[in-house]
Amino acid sequence: MRRNLTLALAVAVAACTPPRQAATPAASGASPAEPALKDVFRNDFMVGAALNPAQFGEQDAVGVALIRRHFNTITPENVLKWENVHPRPGEYDFGPSDRYVEFGVRNGMFVVGHTLVWHSQVPRWVFQDAGNPVSRDTLLGRMRDHIHAVVGRYKGRIKGWDVVNEALEEDGTLRRSPWRNIIGDDYIVKAFQFAHEADPDAELYYNDYSLENPAKRDGAVALVRRLQAAGVRVAAIGTQEHNKLDWPSVALVDSMLSAFAATGVRVAVTELDVDVLPRPTRNTGADVSMRAEARAELNPYAAALPDSVQRAHAARYGELFRVYLRHRDVIDRITFWGVRDGDSWLNDWPVRGRTNHPLVFDRAGRPKPAFDAVVREGQQAPPPSAPREVIRPA
Q1: What is the pLDDT of residues 73-99, one digit of tens each?
Q2: pTM of the model
Q3: Shortest CA distance to 115 belongs to which of 156, 166, 72, 152?
Q4: Is 34 a catalytic residue?
Q5: How far apart are CA 329 and CA 292, in angstroms?
Q6: How many CB atoms lie within 10 A of CB 44?
Q7: Is 271 a catalytic site residue?
Q8: Catalytic member of 212, 271, 319, 377
Q9: Which residue among 166, 241, 319, 377 is the active-site one?
Q10: Distance (Å, rounded) from C-alpha 36 to C-alpha 41?
């Protein structure tokens, strides 16, 4: 009931702003008339996007134009995940990740590596020998070799790494992943230590979703404090921010950012989007393995997004950036998970083949009302008491 009321109020407030008129095809992609996001927030935080191979390989001309104009930091969607970069024992495929890093360096961007240790998208061989679980020492050796090879290759060019990804359950306890089952609770400490050995100057991050939930938020705080007690240097907590129109509340986002600031580490909003489609389950998390059955009522905006939902989507982005700006003293970067709506993973998760509209640029690369709302928040925010240069050369 409360969520419905919140959404209704957001729609009502946004209704006073007329919807953006669709641009002509010639206006697709970056337009000089639009303020660049990286410039709007240049004294607040870096602004970035997750890239796919067609973008950093420069086959997607519209996407590349948007990236160069609006973003000063980039993250790879998949090419640095273990199954892609290290598919078989002793065999690495650095071709796609080399192109990703070269694109970022060539364009003067802060290049992020994603991700070194995760329970998903890891080949089965990593955890097995002849079909049997490997020993602790064997798995630690494989982890160290992988991290040293990947981080070492991009030393000095990839400036920050999501070292461990999604290690927490929803109640804040450690996930029963193969890493933990075989190595033990200290696998996270070891991963950070190996990454620091491979590149002592790189920023090292812990990254997770649903950290607005108090139990999981408290688990993340406790995890960071344990790492700090073990002498591990954590540069930032990455909060993925896969949001819904009505979840999480602004109050939960605000309290999460305050809790993370109290640990003494920075914060990165790492995978931002706002899902506009009906929930297929009651789950509000972002577990990539979750799947749901396709039903017509779960894909209501296949043709276009109605103006009323566009306004609600814009209002949602506006209120989120209002909170982020209140915490700009601790937030280093905000990264959208994708460049345009058609790039988004939410078109296939947790129901395959849906048409989602979660980002601030539409499928043609045109800025949406959500883009206007984000820019408006940046332009209307009072200047920071101590402006800081947040763009760090790649």
Answers
A1: 999 999 999 999 999 999 999 999 999
A2: 0.89
A3: 166
A4: no
A5: 39
A6: 24
A7: yes
A8: 271
A9: 166
A10: 9
